[in-house]
Amino acid sequence: MNEREARLALSCVVEPATPAVTEAIEDFGAEAVWASLISGGDSPLCRRARSFRAEPVQAVAETSGIRFVVPGDPEWPPRMADLGGCEPVNAMTGPPVGLWVRGAGDLGALATRSISVVGSRACSPYGETVATDLAADLGDAGQCVVSGGAFGIDAAAHRGCLASRTPTVVVLPGGLDQAYPPAHRPLFERAAEHGVLVSELPPGQHPTRSRFLSRNRLIAALSVGTVLVEAAVRSGARNTVTWANCLRRVVMAVPGPVTSAMAYTPHRLIRESEAVLVTQASEVLELVGSLGGGRNRPASPHRPTDELRPDELRVFEAVPARGARSASELSLASGVGLAACLAILDELVDRGFLIQDDQWDWRLPPRSPATSRTPSQS
Questions:
Q1: Is 175 exposed, middle or buried (0-12, 13-18, 19+ CB in 10 A)?
Q2: Can you give the C-alpha Rg of the chain in angstroms?
Q3: What pairing do the DSSP bridges indicate for beta strands 114-118 and 144-147?
């Protein structure tokens, strides 16, 4: 059994962030650790290791489009190594032995420009709006948003990032062959189209309380900084902030109404200097910019839209940054007659400025995080 196979086996048998195992892997390597489990005594862990068979797990992973990534792979996020020197939190520590990944994105590349946005599941309308707008603006600035896929702030952050046509990273506490929560399956499928779903757990594994806590350290480690939007006195998102502080990441918190229970933890973190107050994406980018992850892209001296005629520019600017509009709506918003507007829309599609979706509405084309909101000059 080689190192990759040993890491895959360990990820299926050992609970994530088990200090003794992660330390042993660092000292002796995964092959030696796995061999010691196979030849060990009659402990439950050793018995589980001896009964493990990789083939069924690999078959489910292949059917589900899931890949296993280990240190040394091009897709492995370098920041994961920081977990090796991190003090234990809730008796957990250490980098993952491997990561199960699903989606079209490259996890390593996305993690180089990523910010975590986390918060309460039972968020307020205020918190949901703030998280959505913040994530969308970060996406517009080329930042990948990382979160945990849960109800509330997590889901709002993922949706906001996707609305900006920027990939998002969803870190889950169970196997990637099943959606958790199940209601978010459509959201996860959208996220996988250009971004990735990530988990320490192999296919077939279900979330548990400890797995939620170990998952939080991955959210913190993947990003250069973590933003807490809302969290009550007791909140799992507070655990993510603890990991971010242990990892010496930039920790930020959004203030809320002083009468709101959901604002308790952000306010306490700000008051006790554990987090920096932020209210918008530009402040987040300013804080993380010095670490190389959040600098605004320099403006191009020449924009492709400079070549558009005035009527073409009015039609183009009537297209929303997120979402789509019909031809009649664009005609009304731009002040260009419907017939002329339709001709301009066809021309803008031909030149790559717009696309027409399945509902026959017009929208901006998808873009990668590194490109601008307008198409490159041909």
A1: buried
A2: 23
A3: parallel
Question: Measured between alpha carbons, how far is 253 from 231 in angstroms, rounded to an integer?
Answer: 10
In 4-88 the beta strands, taken as DSSP E runs, fall at: 66-69
Q: 139 and 173 share a domain?
A: yes
Which of 289, 317, 342 terminates a domain? The answer is 289
Taking Cα atoms as reference points, which of 129, 174, 156 lies closest to residue 279? 129
In 10 A of CB 350, how many CB atoms? 9
DSSP 361: -
pTM: 0.77
Q: Which CATH number do you get for residue 256? A: 3.40.50.450
CA proximity to 223, closest of 329, 124, 144:
144
375 in any annotated domain: no
Q: What is the pLDDT along the chain (378 residues), one digit of tens a residue?
A: 899 999 999 999 999 999 989 999 999 999 999 999 998 888 899 999 999 999 999 999 999 999 999 999 999 999 999 999 888 898 899 999 999 999 999 999 999 999 999 999 999 999 999 999 999 999 999 999 999 999 999 999 999 999 999 999 999 999 999 999 999 999 999 999 999 999 999 999 999 999 999 999 999 999 999 999 999 887 788 899 999 999 999 999 999 999 999 999 999 999 999 999 999 999 999 999 855 444 444 444 556 777 888 888 889 888 887 788 998 888 888 888 888 888 899 889 888 899 988 888 888 887 544 444 444 433
| Residue 154 within any structural domain of the chain | yes
The parent domain of residue 144 ranges over 63-289
Can you tell me the distance from the alpha carbon of 150 to that of 136, in angstroms, rounded to the nearest whole number?
18
